[in-house]
Amino acid sequence: MKYAYFPGCSLKGLGRAYEESLLPVMEKLGVELVELNDWNCCGATAYMSVDETKACILAARNLAIAEKTGSRDLVTPCSACYLVLNKTKHYLKDSPEIRGSVQRALEGAGLRYSGEMPVRHPLDILVHDVGLDVIREKVVRPLTGLKVAPYYGCQVVRPYATFDDAWNPTTMDRLLATLGAEVVPYPLKTKCCGGSLTGTLPDTGLRLTYILLKEAVRRGADVIATICPLCQFNLDAYHDQLTRQWGPVPIPTVYFTQLMGLAFGLPESQLGLRRNFVRMKPLPALPARA
Amino acid sequence: MEHSPRQIMALVRADFKDEVLRSRSIWLCASCYACTVECPREIRITDIMYALKQRAILEGIYPKRFPIPILAKEFFKMVHSKGRITETLLVMRLFLRANWRAVLSSWRQGIGLIRTGRFVLRHERIENRAQLAGMLDSDLHDERRITPKEAA
Amino acid sequence: MKTNLTNGDIRIGFYICHCGHNIGGVVDCTAVAHEITGLPGVVVSRDYKYMCSDPGQELIRNDIREHALNRIVVASCSPLLHEHTFRNAVEAGGLNRYFFQMVNIREHDSWVHTDHAKATTKAVALARAAVLRVRFHRALETTRVAIHPDVLVVGGGISGIHAALTLANAGKKVYLVERDPSIGGHMAKFDKTFPTLDCAACILTPKMSAVRANKNIKLWTYSEVAKVDGYVGNYTVTVRRKPRYVNEELCIGCQECIEACVFKEGKYPDEFNVGLSKRKPIYIPFPQAVPQVVVIDPERCLQLKSGRCKKTCVEACADRQAIDFTQKEEMAEIKVGNIIVATGFKLFDAKRIPQYGYGLYPNVVTSIELERLVTSSGPTGGEIIMRDGRTPQSVAFVLCVGSRDFRTNRWCSRTCCMHSMKLAQLVREHTGADVTVFYLDIRAPGKGCEEFYDKSLKDGIQFVRGRVAEVTDWALTPEEEGKLVIRAEDTLAGVVRRIPVDMIVLAVGMEPQADSQAVRRLFNMSCGSEGWFLEKHPKLAPVSTFTDGVFIAGCCQGPKDIPDSIAQAGAAAAEAMALIDRGYIEQEPNTAYVVEEDCSGCKSCLPLCPYTAITLDGTTQKATINAALCKGCGTCVAACPSGSIRQHLFEDDEIFSEIEGVLTHA
Amino acid sequence: MSKPKIAFYWCAACGGCEEAVVDLAEDILGVLDAVDIVFWPVAMDFKKSDITALPDGALFATLLNGAIRSSEQEEMAQLLRRKSQHLIAYGACACHGGVPGLANQFSREQLLRFVYEEAPTLGEDGRSRPQLESEANGHELELPRLHQAVRALDQVVPVDYYVPGCPPTPKLTQEALAMLLSSNPPPRGSVLAPDTALCDECPRKSSKPSDLSFAGFRRPHEILLDPEKCLLAQGVVCCGPGTRGGCGALCVGGNMPCSGCFGPTSRVRDQGAKLLSSLCANIAAKDEAGINLALDGIPDPLGTFYRYALPHSILQRNVSQAARAETLSL
User: Do A13 and B132 touch (CB under 8 A)?
Assistant: First the structure.
């Protein structure tokens, strides 16, 4: 299986542990991710706030480059990228005005985009294309005894995701269970982490982050699994401020791909786990086999 | 949040333009799209918030040193010139523009980033920056559109 | 028949109606009348303020006599409204009633256009078309078809029960078909009724018993309509009678068999208590069930599933031998003249809105579940308790669950406001708990309902205006710990509130039955886009359907409360009786017919007829149309590849001259 | 008393109708016993002047085949009309426009451009259009002018009788002549063929099911056709239900579907539309995608349903108006 791959800026920066774990896990499963040549920033949410058309042009450049590769699907692990690329697809389809501007911009740059290529998240690929059965076969170190709170965040499930429910997604739950982990019921799984508000308006943003961490702790989770670099950063990097304001909420937040890597027996050192502010404890000892 | 999203919608309908554009509420939207999916009248609230933010930036109506529009514009500029975002550099520029004291208060976080190897000081950039800039400037015929200079 | 009038004999009277301001305010009626004067054959052309009034009709009758008119055209409103009126006038004037053509220049013209000049031009074109057409009209006769006096009522809820009793009390024979093992429907599950708070069982049970006692009612429970053939006055209906494995004639409802069942305790969710209690494989739906006959669930009964059971029930029924494991499904065919469809509604599935936590949090219940909890005959003996046995100290009601929401159902379910306030008062009365009602608008338009709302406010029930965003169990403050937290914007206060409560009641709305589309096809009815059965006219024919002799009553037509359902049921019964007592129906002669010598017997038309009115004559090998079945839809006429099927009132010369009239520019 | 004088003439046609006359074989002798053929350019040496010399109405009947496409054909139709007591539209082209009538899908300009300039078979030097007027050997030559549209005969001159078919069968031709010569000829305007559809005389009629419900359509070469069973029931488009009978179901007898050459019955204004509405009404699929899929089995609907009667179709209104305008401007 081969897919075009759009990492997005975060996976080269704050979220590099995501890419560090994603690529070997995919390789282990025989999935080849071919990084787009000279991709640019998707525009994220900030760009949309300034200029809608330019935001679409920005995203469309990546879509056009992706189409040129001839791959079937474009895979992007970052929630913001996933949303923006999908949203651009929808806008190009629904708004003739934006379509016109984008087409002019693409033509001027010698690019073309037909609007057909699906933009997908690795979680979708793993569960629906690769399949849980294949994943189960690769598990050498089941995560037995590890209590995980599955946290999806917003933008992969809303509003454009087609592969799971907007309020109660279960794809990652099933994936984690396949790895042997104990999935903690976590009704906040699609609540907002605060997004960029944690940096811009900490009073508002960090409160949302705090609720997520506190509830995960209260429900007995050992670790939170996330699918988005910004979510991971928010849940991981603000523990100082949170503790000062509301008290400690000691729980690590890791990428679901890192947990997969552990279960696949990949060396911890290669999964970017040391990049966490709040480190994950070593996996509990496996119960003795009967 | 001085106006709830519902009140924002009502104020827009009632043509309270200044009231809406000056509202901090529109900047509080973190784009989680919960409201859009939730709305029983199928109003695309998140997209409307975007439209209001664009309008506010275009008309220059927002609180001075209010970090969110500054972030949006800094983001916009960095992408325009480099093609990609380097988060740590973006945040530093934001702090310098909006609230330099914040740098001091979050020094421990900065050290943490350095310690975990996530602090990037070198700009990520794309090769074909000329192509991207050409594309982004291709719709300048529309006078309402904002250029990076204006945004600055 | 005067079909062979030559053009010279044609004497047309044209009348255009102002309809007060409805038409006259947009169309220059005088100019239209003037324009029509010049057309060939037109002898009289007049405009008049109200053609449908007595003087208006008198005008037509007089002109027929004075000017020897033999064709009449009226340009006014919709034929649905007044075609009958004018045809009567034409007949009273001494002409065949089909020497008449009506033009709709209200709905088709004045009501939909604003440009007066263009609307007038359009009126002229439409009128000219009718004048050209009417020249070719033939004299036609209506036919009469006898009406079978028996009636089928489908659905044994309060609407079906009331319709059946009304008819039976008037001496008509009624078949009442209900798919559940007992009649009673939703109402049987209610404790009290709003706004009077009188006991639902006390007013329903006597009616259920009356059904059982009435000699004119043939009650078929556990049965479904499988097939409907025929037409108004002459329906042949096939009813599927499911086996209950208990002989209805022999069972006396002593329930000793239930006692004796090898299952010592109830094990399976009890449908009547919406799953809040358990029943055995052999059971009686509820204490007041009609008929009082035990039923065996074939999915659960050991004997029926595996054939290996001690059959203690058979032993217990030793004397009567009512239990019969050999029962098979039966098909019964009945003949009726009219059908009343009262198939009711289903409740919205609260799981479709996961944010409200139904199915996730045990103390989030639906309004019907609370209804069962509050009833003394219910699973808790009328005690409102939570799943852990505690009595709630605080209860919240969430209104419009699945209603007034574009993502689920757009309509207002009409009864939930009142139903919730009734339950809220009962909760206060039974438990003294704090009650908060989250609402969008309180809709209490029924008689005594606003007063009931007032009473609720005075009783200390809190009302918060705002759609609930979500129900959570995460706590931000100590008082929220261990409780369910409702998050909602209080739109009157303008703040987002978190309100912790013990129990949450979701006021689920009404939906069309899951199989409403199949039922609609069965009875050849129409549905609105939402799936409710469509009445023929929302004001003038609210219980009729587009199929003659099929009437609708109760919630299958749209959400309504008990009084409205009963009023509709009575109306449907009266409509059916009006047909029965007249004894016949008159059929419009606008039917299709095959010109036998032209037909090549190609059979193209046979499968097209939605009323199966076309058959192939075995000896002549030509198609024939049963005029009594034909509804004049014209499908076969259009499809006949050799043009051998024609239609009265829609003959080629009539249609082509009409087209010519529209297309000719003045 | 001299025998009635008969003329044969052809306009826009393939020549098949002329062959049909020859197909009378020895029976033609019987015809010659009854009539004198005074004009038959395709078979014998006659000149236009032979006809112009005749007094008006001198001909008992003219059997004219072919549609009217050019100014010359129109002129001859008018001339023969004048000279004949009975003008008979002979064959599908004269009756309804026939196969040449399919040209009405295109404008005259499109046709000329393709034929003389764009057809892939043309050599480089051949790409020029013939001029209407030219000079050769000192003589002024004038070519007939093409009209904008092909018309049936009765769209040009009044027609007394119609003998349908592509071509009419010998039996039909004989019967038609006999009817004309009889003491009690049918009323003018009659089609000299039965007025019921072909199914009535089809040998496969009894095998037609009462519910066709087409799952899709097949072309005859795509399947092995059952020689006994109704062709429609085998999913092949057979125009029999919408086509006048009288041919004796020759094509069906040869295991080919009826292509509609006898035209519609007298009660039908537009043969193609009728065929379409009856066929489409019986398509099994009820959703748009399914219906489209079924209809994709008919690659050329116009050529299938309007093969013989496009000029008489209501679809022709605009083009024939343009043609009329052009005729007037000549």
Answer: no
CB nearest to C494's CB, from B4, B39, B41 = B4
CATH of the domain at A217: 3.40.50.11810
Look-up: residue for tokens 């005690």? C383
List of chain A residues whose C-beta atoms are within 8 Å of the C-beta of residue C472:
187-188
Q: Which domain-ending residue is among A120, A152, A184?
A: A120
Distance between CA atoms of A163 and A167, rounded to whole angstroms? 12
Domains of chain C: 7-140 (3.40.50), 141-242+329-344+514-587 (3.50.50.60), 256-316 (no CATH), 346-511 (3.50.50.60), 588-648 (3.30.70.20)
In sequence order, what are the residues at sequence separation of 6 or more whose Cβ sits closer than 8 angstroms to the Cβ of residue A5?
A: A33, A34, A35, A36, A74, A75, A76
Partner C contacted by B32 (CB < 8 A): no
CA dihedral B97, B98, B103, B105 (to 10 degrees): 170
Max intra-chain CA distance, chain D: 70
Angle (deg, nearest 10), helices C416-431 and C367-374: 40
The D5-10 sheet, strands edge to edge: D36-39, D5-10, D59-65, D84-90, D161-163
Which neighbouring-strand residues pair with C279?
C268
Residues A144 and A226 in one domain: yes
Q: What pTM did the predictor assign? A: 0.76
> Which tens digits make up the pLDDT trace of C517-553?
999 999 999 998 899 999 998 998 999 998 999 999 9
Cross-chain residue pair D211–C604, CB shorter than 8 Å: no
CB interface of B with A, residues 42-61, below 8 Å:
46, 50-51, 53-54, 57
**Cβ A215–C357 below 8 Å, yes or no?**
no
Domain with A113 in it? 2-120
Q: Which helix (H) or strand (E) holds C498?
A: strand C495-501
Q: Are A77 and A18 in contact (CB under 8 A)?
A: yes
Q: Which of residues 248-307 of D touch C (CB under 8 A)?
A: 264-268, 274-275, 277-278, 281-282
Cα separation, A90 vs D277, in Å, equals: 39
Give one DSSP letter per residue of A88-136, joined into a string.
HHHHHHH-HHHHHHHHHHHHHTT----S---EE-HHHIIIIIIIHHHHH
Compare CB distances from B42 to C406, C469, C489 and report the shortest one's residue.
Answer: C406
Does residue A165 share a domain with residue A88? no
The secondary structure of A17-54 as a DSSP string is HHHHHHHHHHHHTT-EEEEPTT-----HHHHHTT-HHH
Cβ <8 Å between D208 and C597: no
Domain tally for chain A?
2
Residue appearing with tokens 């790409």 = D127
> Considering the domain boundaries, does residue A135 fall inside one?
no
Write the ipTM.
0.70
Mutation to test the C interface, candidates A157, A184, A206, A211, most C Cβ within 10 Å:
A211
Q: Measured between beta carbons, which residues in chain C are less than 8 angstroms from residue B39?
A: 406
Half-sphere exposure of C303 (CA within 13 A, CB side): 19
Does A224 reside within a domain? yes
Q: Are residues A145 and A110 in the same domain?
A: no
Ranges of beta strands (E only) in C330-466 are 330-336, 338-341, 345-347, 364-366, 394-401, 434-439, 462-465
CATH code for the domain of A13: 1.20.1050.140
Q: Is C487 exposed, middle or buried (0-12, 13-18, 19+ CB in 10 A)?
A: middle
SS3 content of chain A, % helix, strand, coil (to 5): 50, 10, 40
- pLDDT, tens only, C299-323: 999 999 999 999 999 999 988 899 9
Q: What pLDDT, in 10s, does the model give residues B131-149?
A: 998 898 886 555 444 444 4
Q: CB–CB of D198 and C600 under 8 A?
A: yes
Q: Chain C contacts of B23, Cβ < 8 Å?
A: none
